[in-house]
Structure of Solute:sodium symporter family transporter:
Amino acid sequence: MQQSGLWLTIVSCILFMALVAYISYKKTKGSTSDSAGYFLAGRGLTGTVIAGSLLLTNLSAEQLVGLNGQAFRTNLTNMAWEVTAAFAIVLLALYLLPKYMNANITTLPEFLSKRFDEGVRRYTVILFMLGYVFVTIPSMLYSGALAVLKLFDIPSLLNLSYTQSVWLIIWVIGIIGAIYAIFGGLKAVAVSDTINGIGLLIVGAIVPILGIISLGNGEFFSGVQTLTTENPEKLNAIGGPNDSVPFGTIFSGLLFANMFYWATNQYVIQRTLGAGSLKEGQKGVIFSGFFKLLVPFFMMIPGVIAFHQYGGELQSVDLAYPTLVANVLPSYMNGFFLAVLLGAVLSSFNSLLNSASTMFAFDIYKTSINKNATDQQMIRISKWVGTVIALATFFISPMLLNAPNGLWDLIRKFTGFFNIPIITIVLMGVLTKKIPALAAKSVVIFHVFAYYLMVWGFEQLFGLTVSIHFIHIYGILFATELAIMLIIGFVKPRETAYEMPHNPSVEMTPWKYAMPTSIFLFACVGQTYIVFSPVGVAYTEGIVSSYFWPATGALAALTVVCMLFSLRSWNEKYMKSTSSTSSLKQKGKNLKEQWGTSSSSDGVYSSSQEQ
């Protein structure tokens, strides 16, 4: 890149990021003076902001680099991690979110402390913090550094070694992200995420389009033909036994891994807990599911294009996307791309940092160190902890330089240490009333040792190879841990049955169209798999097979029938809910007028536990 082009890129990037920072500042000014404002954005987030924030928090450089690298190396089977998240998203929106909001919590460990005890709270905080500090945050910083490194050839520009360049970029990105998270709180993170999310969608569409045009030597449709007829197996998402994600794993461990991420992961549910009402929370969550369906097109097709363009020329599969971008993106867009890329990295980084410091403040500091902590003390300790965590991850991130099979597989394997026990505990906590805290603690300890042994330990310690895919191991351990909790609950149950709390601080009327929209989302997931299968564009004897349109038509007909049925049944439940809410509010108003005081019914909303 020429010196003039470099300065244009840097200046345009800084201007865009400064604009995002200014808008975030204006939107959040004066809103972080108390704990609700700092940690939960004042419980005033709308569905659009929640969806935008979840989009950018989830879709970071980790996906841009990692998923495209896997598509370059194998095929589209890794899209299962993203597309099938719709099932967990609907579980959160329709079932778990009403329970979380009824309990009026700030963190997931706080919810578990109410259901079990403080010991379970500490166990889950430790799992979350270790996962964030040693796996999730470092991977996001490192993947962002890789993309910047390749796109702008930092070693040559600054006369540094490859390793030194990675260290430098990680520190620069990390410091900027830490400023957002530590000083702005959740609302600043959410607002900046929404703006950057729009940019990510624009860039996400431009890169594959330009890549296809390049593949077709200037002709878009010629590029599409090349993509779908030459090596069509690269477009197959129906994984076999030797693929990264065998198709069967979708219905075993992958299902529960996605449940953990979307239904119990602190930095996801913290956005929904900041919603102004249950309706806005449900909208935000479900809308984010539709964004996830764009992943194959935006974050995997470029990897396949890179395979056609560069073959075996790349030193690492994780260089597929950065190389394609460097070759097809016009130079005048480099600054915008860099700003969006950094925005995606910063979003995920500052979201994790904000959530980790929130858990420390609420689940460790306020419960064990200073039980009478004021809002200002909570915010101050959160900022200090965020700073320490950020510095720790700056040193850990560069250690990912030698990931052998690409960044994506490595991250997924290490995430297995904490995702399954947490989702097991949460599900059993809400589905049962008599299972004690001992069961939850036993599962955490059992899982850490069992997972290590099955994935690495037996081979490292005893020379025995476990030939079970690690995602299937997720499912096996989930079933085992479920059984452990049920057995302990049967042998040594709680003395008193647990009752879910009902103390919401926001309006709890559900979104009227939550159910039909969820059904439509499921249909879109099914259609995505039809498209990227041997029935669709992975068909080896043409663009699509003769079964493609009949399968699409049958799915569309089934979807319409289910949506019409759900509209009728859900509307009946919705009307009862709103009627009950109006009745309670009127009673509260009458009591208030009669006695001149605030009634206990005032502000009480219809129970959404049955919605």
About this structure: DSSP finds 25 helices and no strands in the chain. Residues 595-611 have pLDDT under 50 and may be disordered. The longest helix spans residues 162-215. The radius of gyration is 25 Å.
